[in-house]
């Protein structure tokens, strides 16, 4: 199936590992040109080395998505190097595992700033280029927490709910420019965060058994964590020509954990 992504320019934030890197691989397989950014230069360079072997054009630059000047420079550089921008994937982020009384004022501000300005800054920078291309896609990586909060992720859940609302607002505002804006709402996905937690537990179990146990404890209907490649497949679909009449939606990639209707 031709997804219509060959030679499209795709910008991905937080792209040096996990879902961001899996998405970059998937876009490369479709023949897209890919621009990557992340804060860690060493891991970013390793990602570039891997992706360059596919033969597609790659642009990469270290960038903190909370630094508006850095984001503007990265986006402008990507557009110049690759010939415009068609797709923006806002993937940079993390979860903060704290309850309400464990979360300081500073932690609240950090979490809200990351979830909002980690999207606002790239959208502001990329919008003129996507509009000039005649339209395109913006995809914000979010979580089922946006609709289904958990007590030990209180700040992250609140911030993600705001991002869900922002995404829907952008979908309406940008529709006249043929810019489709959607969310991917994640369940529990295998990540470096979970691998660190596994090592910190020092349980004596294999990583596979420990993750299976965690999936059971979290009552995931499919009985396992998701893989970054499964999220990447959904991202590529929403970015493709096959999703040309989809905007303002939140697509769960969560193994059935969303209990809302």
Could you list some keywords that capture this structure?
7 strands, Rossmann fold, 8 helices
Report a brief summary of the structure.
This protein has 261 residues and is of the alpha/beta class.
Can you offer a commentary on this structure?
By secondary structure, the chain is of the alpha/beta class. Helix content is 46%, strand content 15%. It has eight helices and seven strands. It has helices at 18-29, 41-52, 68-82, 105-132, 154-174, 192-201, 207-217, 228-239, and strands at 9-13, 33-38, 58-62, 87-90, 136-143, 179-186, 250-253. The chain has a seven-stranded parallel beta sheet, sandwiched between helices. Helix 2 links the parallel strand 2 and strand 3. The chain is globular.
